[in-house]
Amino acid sequence: MSMNIKSLIDHENGLIDRRIFWDNAIYQQELKQIFARCWHFVAHESQVKSFGDFITTYIGEDAVIVARAKDKSINVMLNSCPHRGNKVCFAGEGKIRSFVCNYHGWAFGLDGKLNGMPENQLYDNTEGFDKSDWGLHKARVETYKGLVFATFDEEAPSLGDYLGDFRWYMDAILDIDDKGTEFIPGTTRSLLKCNWKYPADNFVGDIYHALWTHLGAAESTLKSSGGIHVSNEDSYQSSVNGHGWEFSLANNFGNAATMGDKEIVKYLRSREEKISQRLGSVRAKMIGSVASGAIFPNFAFLPGYLTFRTFLPKGPMETELHSWTLVPSEASDEIKDRWRLGAMRTFSPSGILEMDDGENWEHATIGNSGYVTRNQKLCYQMNPTKGESIPIDLPGIVTKGQLNDANQRLFFKRYAEFMDAKSWADIPLAKPQF
């Protein structure tokens, strides 16, 4: 029987029940209600550019393969043989012509179709047996400006409706010129002993932690410019369908500067006028600013660093982090490599900033499981600019000041809507306005 999650989430008063961060019954409900239902980022098109290119990842705990077929289509399918369930691919990425199960040798095409199996005449007398019924289970696939998304829910709305006006914000990184973006080759994978919602919560709107958690580490790269600068002056939080972006328009190269490479900041400054002509002056300031963003439920990114990541659940108290560095395709090889090194220096398993975050998320998860502790509420009540007007026209639910819990409250409101919904008819989607 499903638990009523709305009773655990008081988003209006900023009170969150700690059970959602450790309870296994709630976690199992998440796999069904959220991960089997939402659109999920699975790859960048640059990772599967040519026929035969593939990567493997997860949607929830379901292992999936993302592969480019001969007809140039991108297919996303379960990485599980329909014969006995074994994985048909154990590599993280590569180039291949078919996937063959180690167990009995069933072979599948890059489109997921069952092409054959050893001694296939053994099925000749099986009434109704049809190979076309036994391909790898496929997901729906759509793309947005290089990003590949998939869902296993046939009733889900289009990706465009799911993202809504959040696309307007995403373009500040994905659409700065005609050549688009690409991922630098390779995926960084690491394990964290934390609930997946802690990093999602952090990226959707928590810049507050940077003033304390990252204060020491950022000294090494920002000391000459006076350290971390975050304020509610000329900064905002925006939320669309549970997706969120907090950002500053005053400190428009702050994140990029934290990587400690002046050449990247120079590159972004050199692009600012052209981006402004293409997207307007507001979004021209967003690509490198002090900011973070997340697409519901578990796909996140940091402008400036251009690190993109998924928080893949491995139980209520463990998360597998996959991360990549995105770069403008038109950038020189030298600038792309500087971005790779900058992202590794800051937001990688050995980076000066990511280690601090991981330690906090792990201890917060473990701390919530104690019997007395689990019965105490968590405080999401920061609301310093309540009622203040927004001086610029921005899409979504916009709150003045990036130091705020507004986006997190809306993230958990969305979480409760998904967890309690019987169908997509119970999940509201904001009508695009931009």
Automatic annotation (TrEMBL):
Key words, A-Z: 2Fe-2S, Aromatic hydrocarbons catabolism, Dioxygenase, Iron, Iron-sulfur, Metal-binding, NAD, Oxidoreductase
Acyltransferase keyword on record: no
Superkingdom of this protein's organism: Bacteria
Domain Rieske: 39-150
InterPro entries: RHO_NdoB-like_C (IPR043266), Rieske_2Fe-2S (IPR017941), Rieske_2Fe-2S_sf (IPR036922), Ring_hydroxy_dOase_asu_C_dom (IPR015879), Rng_hydr_dOase-A (IPR001663)
UniProt-listed Gene3D superfamilies: Naphthalene 1,2-dioxygenase Alpha Subunit, Chain A, domain 1, Rieske [2Fe-2S] iron-sulphur domain
Keyword Kinase: no
Example GO molecular function: 2 iron, 2 sulfur cluster binding
Family note: Belongs to the bacterial ring-hydroxylating dioxygenase alpha subunit family.
Protein name: Benzoate/toluate 1,2-dioxygenase alpha subunit
Organism of this sequence: Pseudoalteromonas translucida KMM 520
Gene encoding the protein: benA-xylX
